[in-house]
Amino acid sequence: MVDTPMLPSLAQEWREEVEQLGPIKYILNTDHLPEHVLGNLFLPGDIVAHDGTHDKMRMTPKSKEQLRKVVRQHDPEGAELLNNFEPRYPNLMLYDRLTMYLGERELEFLHLPGHTPNNVGLFLPDARVLFAGDTVVNGYRPYLGLSDIPSWITTLQAIQVMEVDIIVPGRGEPLTPDKLDPLITYLQVMQERVRELIEEGRTRDEVVSRMMPYFEEWPIDPTRRDEERNLYRQGIRRIYDRLTGNR
Questions:
Q1: What percent of the chain has pLDDT above 70?
Q2: How does pLDDT run across 115-143, given as a tens digit for each residue?
Q3: Most distant CA pair in the chain: distance in Å?
Q4: Helices (H), the chain
Q5: By the 8 A CB rule, do 1 and 13 touch?
Q6: Which CATH superfamily is domain 8-178 in?
Q7: Residues 37 and 87 sit within 8 Å (Cβ to Cβ)
Q8: Phi, psi (degrees; rounded to nearest 5) at 233
Q9: Cβ-contact 238, 211 below 8 angstroms
Q10: Which of 60, 151, 145 is nearest to 113 (CA)?
Q11: Which of 46, 106, 118, 140 registers the highest number of CB atoms within 10 A of its CB?
């Protein structure tokens, strides 16, 4: 399995569906964010992730309670399963790549940094399919709040020359490598816009303010508008900090 859902009830539904095909042997956590790892608690199998994911999954009591509050809004019954929980951590870690075999199928777990420093994807050479996690999104605004844009662009350009026919993104419909150019362009443009404002001598808050008109460039889910604006602001602050060395 590639990632696990954040809502406990949904994780249990996934388990029932997948186990109709056979036992779950491995789970890949493509990064450490809760929407990819919380469901580990409710699914069997060894968990594969980047070495940096383990520590990033650690949560304070306050952060656990905040997460329970979010889950409770969408899955009240499932939230009861999170009382006194501790994340189920990866037990198989990689730095650059890890190759396994499931029967005759080769599984190549690849470090795909950029969206976060610890992103990992799964490449199936025989099928020429890459499960990319949120390193690739299709039709969704990329989240930049933990990003390193130069690394991200390098990763996407490397994917473009892989022997891949189909990319399964973290969000959106599957796509082909030649369709990555709009994502690369977006990352380049966002970084250049922030760079120009920094060169004008703008402060961090001024940069965020002057970047807000570009928020409307993407279709916006009206039910998530405030959340999306906050995530967008986080991304601008991240770019500013990386460009100015305030990491």
A1: 100
A2: 999 999 999 999 999 999 999 999 999 99
A3: 59
A4: 8-18, 34-37, 51-56, 61-74, 76-79, 149-160, 181-199, 204-211, 225-244
A5: no
A6: Ribonuclease Z/Hydroxyacylglutathione hydrolase-like (3.60.15.10)
A7: yes
A8: -60, -40
A9: no
A10: 151
A11: 118
Distance between CA atoms of residues 63 and 68, nearest Å: 9
For the chain, domain boundaries: 8-178, 183-244
Model pLDDT, residue 208: 97
> How far, in Å, CA of 111 to CA of 52, rounded?
11
- Token pair 């025989």: residue: 126
Is residue 149 within 8 A of residue 111, CB to CB? The reply is: no
List 46's β-bridge partners, or say none.
26
The residue type of 227 is E
DSSP of 195-215: HHHHHTT--HHHHHHHHGGGG
Asked if residue 108 has pLDDT above 80, the reply is yes
Distance of CA 83 to the CA centre of its chain: 25
Structure tokens at 71: 């889950």
Q: How far are the Cα atoms of 48, 204, 219 from residue 148, in angstroms, in the given order?
A: 23, 17, 24
Contact criterion met (CB below 8 Å) for 31 and 53: yes
Distance (Å, whole) CA 86 – CA 123 = 30
Tokens of 18: 């997948």
CA 25 to chain centre: 22
* Alpha-carbon gap, residue 235 to 110, rounded angstroms: 25
Quick one: tokens of 102?
Answer: 């499931």
Residue keyed to tokens 């409770």: 72
